[in-house]
Design brief:
CATH architecture of the largest domain: 3-Layer(aba) Sandwich
Number of helices: 7
Radius of gyration: 21 Å
Order of helices and strands: EHEHHEEEEHEEEHHH
Shape: globular
Strand content: 15-25%
CATH topology of the largest domain: Rossmann fold
Helix content: 25-40%
Number of domains: 2
Strand order of the largest sheet: 3-2-1-4-7-9-8
Length: 261
């Protein structure tokens, strides 16, 4: 059971806030975070709050933050803070994830006069790095019995449950599949916090979750506009892939009609 009549929900990749709308509708008090300030601020009077205004819902509290160990600035009490964390992390299919940091070896300090409005540099946040951080932060921030719910696009042919990040304080209680294309599906994974998070064991927890990062990296290569070796596909390659997809779709229809008859 949750502690309060109104559950406290966090979406650490809030974007335009679509996942928090149903949470707010059903009475939860919501927080959201995103590293892209442009999404939060919006454009032409349209921003993350616009959807909540449209439905007459209470607006969530929004922060500019990422969920990496360096970027997550939430300090939770030992008993946890949030009843649930719900998110659809960016995986690079339509938009790539970013985190605080710089690729430069030498980072110049920010002059004092610019610090107040300074927006830190960001760098690419690979999914195999993002997932262990997400699960570890969830284990730290959730109350006992709280749940982490996230979506994970996977390569259908190579997917196994082993690629899901594990954590000593969390257990998977649900894992369902939604097919997007013939090669890509989306897993809706729910994890529940079963043990208290010991901050003194944080390094051990992170090492444990990192063990599965390599499995996710090696066995979940999503097909996209780039080839397996990182080379960009030509227009001819993409046309051939689309043609092959159409032919496979047509073949399935013929097989179905044959079976039905």
């Amino acid at each position: 059971k949750f502690r309060f009549f109104r559950e406290i929900i966090l979406d650490p990749f809030v974007g335009t806030g679509s996942l928090l709308i149903p949470c707010t509708y059903f009475g939860s008090y919501c927080y959201g975070a995103d590293i892209d300030a442009r999404i939060l601020e919006g454009k032409n009077s349209k921003n993350a709050f616009s959807n909540f205004d449209q439905y007459g819902l209470q607006k969530p509290d929004l922060w500019r933050m990422d969920f990496s160990p360096r970027g997550c600035c939430i300090r939770a009490p030992p008993e946890g803070l949030f009843d649930a964390i719900v998110c659809d992390p960016p995986y690079g299919i339509r938009a790539g994830a970013r985190k605080s940091g710089s690729r430069r070896k030498l980072i110049k300090p920010v002059p004092e006069k610019y610090k107040e409005n300074h927006i830190p540099q960001t760098q690419v946040y690979e999914s195999y790095d993002l997932m262990p951080d997400l699960v570890d932060n969830a284990a730290r921030l959730l109350v006992q019995g709280g749940r982490l719910v996230y979506l994970l696009p996977v390569a259908t042919e190579t997917y196994t449950d082993d690629v899901l990040p594990k954590h000593p304080c969390m257990k998977v209680v649900a894992n369902s599949e939604d097919f997007l294309t013939m090669k890509i599906s989306r897993r809706l994974v729910t994890m529940e916090k079963i043990l208290s998070y010991d901050i003194n064991k944080q390094d051990m927890y992170r090492q444990e979750t990192r063990k599965h990062a390599n499995l996710l990296k090696d066995n979940n290569e999503l097909p996209g506009k780039y080839g397996t070796e990182g080379t960009k596909l030509t227009k001819a390659d993409r046309r051939a892939m689309k043609k092959e997809t159409r032919e496979q779709r047509r073949k399935r229809k013929v097989e179905k009609l044959t079976t039905d008859s």
